[in-house]
Amino acid sequence: MKVVIASDYSGYHLKEAVKKHIVDLGYDVVDVGAQKEGDKTLYYDAAVRLAQEIQEQSIERGIIICSTGAGVSMIVNKFKGIYAVACESIFTAEKTALINNANVLAMGERVVSYGMGAEMAEKWLAGKWCQGFEEERRVNNERGFKMLVKIENDNFK
Questions:
Q1: Model pTM?
Q2: Can you count the helices (H) and strands (E) in the chain?
Q3: Are residues 46 and 72 in contact, defined by beta-carbon separation less than 8 angstroms?
Q4: Catalytic-labelled residue, pool 5, 34, 48, 66
Q5: CA 134 to CA 55: how far, in whole Å?
Q6: CA dist., res. 121 & res. 139, Å (int)
Q7: Among this protein's residues, is 66 annotated catalytic?
Q8: What does the alpha-carbon distance between residue 17 and residue 70 come to, in Å, rounded to a whole number?
Q9: Domains in the chain, please, with CATH?
Q10: Which partner from 2, 13, 29, 153 sits 20 to 30 angstroms from 55, CA to CA?
Q11: What's residue 57's pLDDT?
């Protein structure tokens, strides 16, 4: 799977740790964020690059990092077809893939340790929407996601 990753200057070190981990797992990673320590990439610029990369290159998943995960998730969620959740735990990261069909994982370097961020990314990337769900739960989740897409289509013109 091809994954796009980005960070601003304040998420650079966590991005590098997560990137190394997922490359070691065999993922093809495209980095469109801060490229070196001291790079002054701002959170909104990194978020726009990541969202556009997903839209233009049909990349399935993205990981975006700033100091809290909040600012970048707010920006990427303004792009049609991008569904990001800022996560602070392995449990939440894993569940956003399984339950919510999130295609972008947002994290904060000042909130998440490097090891935890790597594990969050691993669990999230391994999760498949509705994997292992009973029929009724799968149907309910699919209806909920269709509602989200309808809201998006009705409001993003």
A1: 0.94
A2: 6, 5
A3: yes
A4: 66
A5: 31
A6: 26
A7: yes
A8: 19
A9: 2-129 (3.40.1400.10)
A10: 13
A11: 86
